[in-house]
Amino acid sequence: MDLSLAGKIVLVTAASRGLGYAIAEAFLVEGATAIISARNQDTLDAAAAKLKEETGREAAAIAADCTSQDDISWLAGTVEERFGCIDVLINNSAGPPTKPFVQLSDDDWRGALEVKFLPQVRCARAVLPGMMERGWGRIITIIGTHGRQPHAYVFTGGVVNAALLNFNKALAEEGAPANVLANAINPGPIDTERMRYLAEEKAREEGISYEEARRIQTEETMLKRFGQPAEVAAAAVFLASDKAGFITGATLDIDGGQTKGV
User: What pTM, to 2 d.p., does this model score?
Assistant: First the structure.
């Protein structure tokens, strides 16, 4: 299927590894111009080198701290100055640390907002005006199933994800008159560093082995396995394409059937 993404300018945040890296790789394969961003320039440069080795195409690596409004504004301006308009934002960020509920302080709750929710709001705010002016754009927010499938071992992450689900719906309404489509992807148990961290925390809190915690993570799915980052990336490139031109305000669970209910 030709997704007609060649030449599109795609900014992927939190892209030095994990889901962001896999999504950037998928866009490069489709012929898009991918700009990867994260906090550490050395880590980004290593990721860019690996992407070139795997795809034969270069990704630009621009370090920025998405917890800083100034950094986000600078990042968006730099991308537009060097490459032109940002057609697609893959709005990705790291998840907050987790603790048992009674150990979570007010600062922990505020920190969760600063680590995940506000960076994704700020990134969308930086790119939306240009997209609306041009009459075309895609904002794809990477959220997570804990927003709809809560777990006690990931309190702050689940609450922040629920807020982002609401944000995605409102953003879609805002952008619709100008053909700026906003959609969300909820990754479930994808085999990434984040999921391994959550397994470690679950094992510690429940007094079980790491291997048992990993087994429980897969048992929550219908398919009884971990997903792969490439499976999330495939959905992201589709949602960014004109093939998905009548999809906005949607949330796609890529979780092997983990999320129950409607």
Answer: 0.94
